[in-house]
Amino acid sequence: MYIQLNKPMTWQDKRIRAMNRIISRSKAKKETTQHYLAEYNRICVSNAENKQQYKGENNDNNQERR
Q: pTM value?
């Protein structure tokens, strides 16, 4: 049984569902899961309002690391 909330789906919810779908369809589940762990953490701590802002945050962070 699924309980649906009246809360609209955020971009974070959609991205996490997409990652879960990719992992579930993968033949190498362990490796695929490890690949997405860092992104899952970045999504959870992100303050971005939409996916474009999130991508901008990540591009800024990647440039700072170089």
A: 0.73
